[in-house]
Design a protein that fits this description.
Structural class: mainly alpha
Helix content: over 70%
Shape: globular
Number of strands: 0
Number of helices: 5
Order of helices and strands: HHHHH
Largest sheet: none
Radius of gyration: 16 Å
Strand content: under 5%
């Protein structure tokens, strides 16, 4: 649909404008930044869908929790690597995208945990 195309184009343009210099080849730097920004945007529809449901299916909750863990690990990497990238704007954009993803997903997981109560561990088990 139209929203998907706009999200992909927007992430691609942001990645072209702001990407860290992790490699001597610009296309690899752009690909990494594009994937990171797209991953941050791609989780939003799943979170929106789950937030509007009374019950979150276990596979969706597991996917969201795994995505949150991945974003936290990437954010930890960037906290260390930020000073070593050639582009300050690229590093800042990567940290901002990952930080936003961690924030949104964390808020969802907290609300999901509050709704699940003591059954929180069961919600995260794959069905």
């Amino acid at each position: 649909g139209r929203g998907i195309g706009e999200a992909v184009l927007g992430c691609g343009l942001v990645a072209l404008a702001m990407h860290p210099e992790l490699s001597s080849r610009a296309e690899y730097n752009w690909c990494w930044a594009f994937a990171t920004y797209l991953e941050a945007v791609a989780c939003l529809p799943q979170l929106s869908l789950a937030a509007h449901r009374q019950h979150c299916p276990a596979p969706l909750a597991t996917f969201v929790a795994a995505g949150a863990l991945s974003a936290v690990a990437q954010l930890a990497f960037w906290a260390e690597a930020f000073d070593h990238v050639g582009s300050l704007a690229g590093g800042a954009a990567a940290v901002a995208a990952l930080g936003a993803q961690v924030g949104v997903v964390s808020q969802f997981l907290v609300s999901l945990g509050a709704a699940a109560g003591p059954a929180w561990c069961d919600v995260l088990r794959c069905a």
